[in-house]
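Run log, item B.
One chain of 501 residues. Sequence copied directly from the ordering sheet:
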Amino acid sequence: MQNGTLLAAVDLGSNSFRLEIGRFEHGQIQRSEYLKETVRQGNGLDEDRNLTPEAMQRGWDCLARFGERLAGLKRGQVRAVATQTLREARNRDEFLARAHQILGFPIDVISGREEARLIYQGVAHLLPQSAERRLVVDIGGRSTELILGHGYEARVMESFRVGSVAWSMRYFADGQLTARAFEAAEIAAKAVLDEALNAYRRDAWDLAYGSSGTIGAVGDVLGAAGWPADRVTRAGLDWLLDRLIKAQRSDRVRLEGMKEDRRTVIGGGLSVLRAVFDLLEIDEMSSAQGALRHGVLYDMLDREHEQTDLRSTSVQRLTEKFAVDAAQSVRVQKVAAQLFRQLFDSSQGSVEERNRHLRKLNWAANLHEIGCQISHSESHKHGAYILDNTDAPGFAQHELHRLGLLVLGHRGKLRKLDADFEDADFVAQLLSLRLAVILCHARRDPDLKGLQLKWSPAQGKQFSLRCRSGWSQAFPQSAHLLREEVLAWQKTLWSLTFSES
């Protein structure tokens, strides 16, 4: 990446939406602009876990303002991620479809563990490098992430469904800040976080850091009151609890350093933070400057190259876990890539775009047989299920789903796919993968001499596959399977022709 390039990260949190714009300079990202708006989507989920129209509108309005600041940036310069509220919302697709149009960029809903990994990346990149073992805690609106890491590597990651907005709604809904309410909220938080005791035991880390949200807000209040700056202690939490209980109601809280938007969620946030301190035996926690949005920015740098793209490592781990036939995966990958390049050469688009789609096609080729460990005849279905329900570091949920669709569609009927066949890039990937699987059906390197796959947007939705004279007679089984493939595509919006020169 060239020095001076602008990068932007949008964090759609449960309490606030944030926009971080930074300039890449010599391996580091220097802040250019930062915007934060309190949207409170977390308290906009109804009893059926649907976002209310009002909550969606608040989000859309905020993203419209962010979109103005992002005008002129390309897709490769911006990444937007959504967390717990949109992980939960049943009508998230409705919100995301319009949000994409308003913001001008797609929005990735990330898993809890992926959120934890990115939080750690953000914290680690803004801390001095050291040999210390770190515990990083991030208490958001509807989830709390706990991470153990060393250097830039997050080694243990988990996300728990407990947060400042959720706990404030549940235990301080009427604004009453009583000792009994705090006690009930802390007990409930400990019940959720209790399973963290073994993995995050006190001898597993040296220093504790708190990222963003609640911990940053508590640190600001304690610092303004004369406690050690950029640090949260047990004694400080006891003092803050006493002040809140004396205030009796959230709307009566008057504390220097506390922003207005934190007043209504401080009860829930403090109760969760106290539970974390007690369970993990924390005496002192430093406030970290890095957060999820910073992790997203640095992850964008890693995604630029396959060697540093964590998604490639995750794919390799999945192939090993499910004992995939490595030789066949490589064989299918090479053939699919060759076919896809032929399609690209005959169509439009940038080399950068081609490489991005090609990398994803390679992953699908590597993973297309991961379901074979469960069932050979239904392997494509099991493979798609695995990808839809796995935690794969580096991947957003929609990315795994798209890979799952390619795995599901690499064989069998095409009409079973709940996919967008208007998406020419996806269709090109799918066709290349299906043809590669056919050509490699004998599990040996196929003879591709003279084989040409072509498509031009000017020709509409029609692909053509041509082979050299005599190829069909030399490889009758492959030719038969290719003719069957022609019939399969007739039941879609697209068509495929197969002929000899």
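Observations after the first pass:
- The mean pLDDT is 94.
- The two ends are 44 Å apart (CA to CA).
Flagged for discussion on Thursday.
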